[in-house]
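Section: Multi-chain targets

For targets with more than one molecule, the full set of components is provided together so that the structure can be written out for the assembly as a whole rather than chain by chain. Components appear in the order listed by the source. The example entry contains two components.
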Amino acid sequence: MIKKQFQAAVNIIEKNCNADDFSIIIYRTDEQMIRYAQNKITQNMSGVKIVVNLSVAYGNKTGSATISSLDEKELIEMTETAQSIAKLNKEDPEFVKSAPRTLLPKTSNLSESTEKFTLNEIGNMIGEAVKNAEKKKIFVSGLVTKNLTDLFLKTKNGFEGYDRSSEFQHSMTLSDNKSKEAKVERSVKDVNDYLIEREIEQLNSRFDALTEPKKIEAGRYNVILRPQAVINFFSFLLNFFDRKNADYGVTAFHDSLGKNIFGKNFSLISNLDEKDLTASPFSGDGIPARNFDWIKNGVVKELYTDKSYAKKIGVKPNFIPNMIIRGGDATEEEMMKKVKNGLIINNFFYISPLSERKNEITGLTRDGIYYFENGKIKYSVNNLRFNEIIHRASKNILLLGKEYNISSYAKVPTMLIKDFTFTDTAAF
Amino acid sequence: MDYLSIALDCAQSLGAEYADIRIQKTKSELIYIEDMGLKHTNMSIIHGYGIRVLKNGSWGFAHSNTFTKHDVIKTVEQAMKVAEMSAKINNRKSFTLAYERGYIDTYSTKMEIDPFKVPLKEKVELMLEVNKTMLNYAKIRSVFFVLENVNDDKFFASSLGSRIHSNISHTYPRFEATAVNEKDSQPRMFDKGGNAAGWEYVLKMNLIDKAVQTAEEAIIKLEADEPGEIRRRDLILDPFNLGLTMHESVGHPTELDRVLGWEADYAGVSFATPEKLKNYRYGSDIVNFVGDNTLPYGLATAGYDDDGVPGQKWYIVKDGILNEYGTTRDTAPLIGENLSRGCSRATHYYDFPINRIPNLYLEPGKKPLSPQELISDTEDGIYIEGKRSFSIDQHRVNFQFSGDMFWEIKNGKIIRPLKDVLYKSNNPEFWNSCDAICDERYWKDYGVFGCGKGQPMQSSNMTHGASTSRFKNIRVGGSK
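Its structure, encoded as tokens over all components, is:
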């Protein structure tokens, strides 16, 4: 039904488009989103969003237009706008033709259970979270989203792709509104993989392990990064992983392909065969998804390369359909025993780049930080600021835990890393 | 068809205690040119309506882009359904809205040249010339120029009787050059912020001259020394660096929704809790922060907010003391305020209005003082221009900011450029260390485009402003 609506919109655009080349992309998101804070719902919204984008070219002159409707009159106006931009524009020396007909990989991104999950069932989950907080006489804040997304791409050169995906996401922060705060968050393709009782149990366990934070100073510490901290820290790497910027010497990855830049037990891949992860079968500009070893055992195997730069240097373009950091089998207990002492980090906050050339970033710990010694958690400590070089941290990985589905598109393990660089303390 | 009345009549017939509808059409032009390549030339129109209802003291919100009577009614019914679901969970913990009356009014941005009417070729040629100018330097390896023009046309109606039409225009040009050698890469950006104005704002900037300066300063930075270990010294910050510093360390902590813990799961909370009002020393005596949604050319100046509350001007910090918050109709009553300060804004029609930073600025110093006099009066310090890396904790206390250009000061003179400088401080240390603010001749505004907040993430614009100011004895140095 939705695909037919998309096809009808595409027919209108094609009928009215006289450009030499075009590419049409349509997104439709049916979303339910509820925010709650301090044991009360503060925002509850639902609706369908549509984005239609048309990119056209006359020779090397390009233009594009976007609207939020499938209405015929607006589609015709959008087509005229894109065409008039292209006609008035200067030539683009880096222009690349739209994607050709391509065989796309089969992906399974939709869960029927998520599709059928009702507003009342979402309400029940929030009710459970609030009941738990009220029982503990503290406060919970969180977000639940249920998204069903349809994506359609068609080009003048014969590319046609359609994908329908589902995502359910829930985060909960439990706080005494004084010094203790713990959080769990997770998104899944299939809502059946999300058990509210298990999440609340984990949240309670993290919160109950907190004590009044003792003061520690900045310095280098052994750290156990839990999955949320791992994804936030290492996914920042992707901001610096562009092939052009590497070749131009802007980032740390100049002349890095095939070289051992990262730690030997650090591998970052994209894998379409991971059944519990979603993976877009194609990018917005029609690059088909495939499996990639971006970094294998510390060696840089691929850098992100867009279509125009790929054409310039004569390589295949790529994109990142999903992200997996390869894990191991160590438990958190084994990690705590591996080193004399250290810190368990649940999450990082406000990560910002410091130097592209050094691959260095900054950020702060959040959602509970524990000091451990001789294999056991001793107490909570104040939050800390890190200034750290991403590949340096990867070289200091001592142990890896099992891969964990932190989101519908990413799987990462818990990591034990030695000598992580904290340069400042927070006041709480 | 009068969709405004259809929505409000329907909401009231279904028992809404309050309802509003925004019919909003956001037109955006984005041109992005990188290394002489036209990466992106797009015109976007996002058009639809959002309906917000309060039922049993709880909010419900639904949106649609289909303009028929049937769809408007269906959207109201959906908003009512989600409000009723919220009320069940909230179980008597209902919202009370601050008093407001209805307004029938119009507001539009004053501008001389509509940027959407400027021929595309003229804009692209200017941007290419800037690209070319910067790439003429052998050490400049990569450049880009981004131009955004936005026009927001909005009809707001509420069950209080408001019928408000606003038409707001924003323009934001910025570009960057990155210098590269064998050992390092250093970017330098030209970014004076966005403005609620037309194309005349861009024309007054002398962009080709600025492109030369930007490229040359990137190269200067490339060859400059690092500052060494962190140590305490004086910091002189220009208005563009201060814009971001006040945004993060004053603007966000004084949003009342954050103070109340409504952002606890995501963006964080605030140290500036209500018991500190009127007694907490936020800054030194000369520090006065004004919230002002009537500021000419201000990006948050829109006549009214998305609660239908008129734009206002008030002190957020007065003579160094925390004075008031930025508030909305649903947050103000929770601290005993009868009226909202008008800080409720949504980005697109499909977004729920949230508590936003207003236009917020640091008042200029009252005594005559120029940046040069300030530098001459500084023995050991660093002068920072522009913004770069920024990071602050979730309570908005501890922060680490950088800048875009750095100059070392010794005995009242700039002695050399530096690179990769950071400063680390916290609330209340930082604003209490402010001992000098240049006078109003040197006051400049900085319009922030794309302040991210909320879930789903909304991107909002607001303007900050300051004169160059000095902060004594701050930890400044490199990243280690």
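The mean pLDDT of chain B is 97.
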